[in-house]
Amino acid sequence: EVQLVESGGGLVQPGGSLRLSCAASGFTFSSYPMSWVRQAPGKGLEWVSVISGSGVTSHYADSVKGRFSISRDNSKNTLYLQMNSLRAEDTAVYYCAKDLLQNVDYIDGVLDYWGQGTLVTVSS
Amino acid sequence: DIQMTQSPSSLSASVGDRVTITCRASQGISNSLAWYQQKPGKAPKLLLYAASRLESGVPYRFSGSGSGTDYTLTITSLQPEDFATYYCQQYYSSPPSFTFGPGTKVDIK
Questions:
Q1: Residue B48 in contact with residue B59, Cβ under 8 Å?
Q2: How far is CA A49 from its chain centroid?
Q3: Is A74 helix (H, G, I), strand (E, B) or coil?
Q4: Distance (Å) from the C-alpha of residue B85 to the closest C-alpha of chain A?
Q5: Residue pair A61/A7 in contact by the 8 Å Cβ criterion
Q6: pLDDT, tens digit, for every residue of A87-111?
Q7: From the CA atom positions of chain A, what is the Rg in Å?
């Protein structure tokens, strides 16, 4: 059974940093691209970032480019999101999600499994 | 960047109704469109991808169609468990930038 479990959320002051983790199990982690998607309270879904299965390629939404960094440790089956220079508008539930297609380097973008999310609150 | 719109933003329907939700992209996306269902406090669930391909385990009352810039999600015979918010998502962009629509909330009439 595929499982994705996010952790690392919490309250952080504006300008601060936080690192989110997503522990994966139930599939060959290194074979699938992984994404982070966020949802501000009461709002819709916003894609944040994606990384290829190999970890070589990554892409970001313009709203987080230069501040957030996605990475993965395939030996630990774990996905990360390093968030720096946090702003109030980054407040959201952050979900990690798995790509539907198994391909080490090609990123498809269809997200078939999602974690339960971790809440990040940026406030003074 | 490709922008996505959905209509309506919300609708009220009864059990057994046929429901149609429309999603429009700001440019052609060659059927690179997925639909997700989200219930309050829960993660989104993939329903369809490639505009019309049903994800494994999703009931056949869900279907998708469309081409170019315009796509639809149809639920035939709405069931109580279908009351939720529905999002479309394009995954056509290169380099990848996966835009979601603003969502359509389906609630009980």
A1: no
A2: 6
A3: coil
A4: 9
A5: no
A6: 999 999 999 999 999 988 888 999 9
A7: 13
